[in-house]
Input
Amino acid sequence: MDQIKEQVTAALEELLEEADLREHDILVLGASSSEVLGSKIGKNSSQEVGEAIVSTILPILKERGIYLAVQGCEHINRSLVVERECARRYHLEEVTVIPHLHAGGACAVAAYEHAEDPVMVEHICAYAGLDIGDTSIGMHIRYVQIPVRLKIKEIGKAHVTAMKWRPKLVGGERAKYPGKIR
Output
């Protein structure tokens, strides 16, 4: 578990540096504890792994004032665990379900248990995302999505991908853009 926590910390800190998130921005996490352990997604869920991942990420994000949204699995339609404060701030559509190990997944369960006032929402538009185990979080990232190439390629045995957001560039050949785009 210590190695998983170290890998999660390194990946998250690199993503945060690259994504330039601000207070009240949302970061989405998708994670398969089964993949982290080297099994096929959904076939070897581990609450211990989910707890290790979420308990590592939460303090880092809280320190920066960034909201965490944790995507559940397809058995709960990839709904997400967020704090009620986040759901209200962003006018998110709340849904009725409580994640558990085999319908939601270990990380969603850990996030629900760690939250001060958890709610489940149907969809979000996060500013960045960390995907541990190819759980397909892209639907929850704002457009335009930019891949972030992390130095950490795996957490445990799970493939890791990350992405950030930038605003759309609009206009044509006469349009001008700022020097730095988010």
